[in-house]
Design a protein that fits this description.
By secondary structure, the chain is mainly beta. It has helices at about 50-60, 160-165; strands spanning about 30-35, 40-45, 70-75, 80, 115, 130, 150-155, 170, 175-180, 185-190. An eight-stranded antiparallel beta barrel has the order 1-2-7-5-6-4-3-10. The chain has a two-stranded antiparallel sheet with strand order 8-9. A hairpin with a 2-residue loop joins strand 1 and strand 2. The longest helix is centred in the first third of the chain and has 12 residues, at about 50-60. The termini are far apart.
């Protein structure tokens, strides 16, 4: 089996106009918890905007596929990629064929978003995913090719990814940027059917301070 290594393989094709920028929607799909050896973070899925990618990801989540895989490619100020290799860098056979690329869904590769890794074939994504450690608009559809499909967002625990990004990395055979300290994905579990954003807590209005003017001094006493 050909190892699923590259994340960014720029397609040799004429770039087309990217979709017009839109306000980033709030994910409303299921929420999963990713428990790693460096901590836990939570991903909310864009089920409405990326239904095929969401269904593909949940297939791997619900079958326990991700348990025992690692973050095998970590590039600070870029992304952290995992979900396909064991600690000995053996690739796990995917459960299904590649999912159709949904990179034209209007979701941008901004910090904390989650997208599928793939080969040069835009529709080759299977289990491997990556988290954007910064805004990477070059990965969006039409900027430098077919783009990478965003299907989720880290809504809690982004500091865990920042810790992962600080690890020293090395090359191991054909694999680049492999963390020297193994970052094990212990398990990925679905914890809620829908994401509910935390309530917006506004600061209490300040009570205006009333400053009383001093009473005017009494006038001179007159004779009675």
């Amino acid at each position: 089996m050909i190892a699923f290594v590259p994340l960014v393989v720029l397609l040799a094709q004429a770039p087309t106009a990217p979709p017009a920028p839109k306000p980033t929607p709030v994910p409303t799909g299921p929420v999963v918890a990713v428990d790693t050896s460096l901590g836990t973070f939570k991903i909310a899925l864009y089920e409405k905007e990326a239904p095929l990618s969401t269904a593909n990801f949940l297939l791997y989540v619900r079958t326990g596929f991700y348990s025992g895989t690692i973050f095998h490619r970590v590039m600070p100020a870029f992304m952290a990629q995992g979900g396909g290799f064991t600690p000995s860098l053996l690739e796990k056979p995917p459960l299904a064929g590649g999912v159709k690329n949904e990179s034209r869904n209007g979701l941008r590769n901004v910090r904390a978003t989650v997208a599928f890794a793939r080969t040069a074939d835009p529709n080759s994504a299977t289990s491997q995913f990556f988290i954007n450690l910064r805004t990477n608009h070059t990965l969006d559809f039409g900027i430098m090719g077919a783009g990478y499909a965003v299907f989720g967002e880290v809504v809690e625990g982004m500091t865990v990814l920042d810790r992962i990004a600080m690890l020293r990395t090395t090359r191991m055979g054909p694999h680049e940027a492999v963390p020297v300290t193994t970052v094990l994905i212990r398990n990925v579990t679905e914890i809620a059917p829908h994401y509910e954003p935390p309530p917006l807590i506004l600061p209490a209005p300040e009570t205006p301070t009333v400053i009383s003017e001093p009473a005017p001094p009494a006038g001179p006493a007159g004779k009675s």
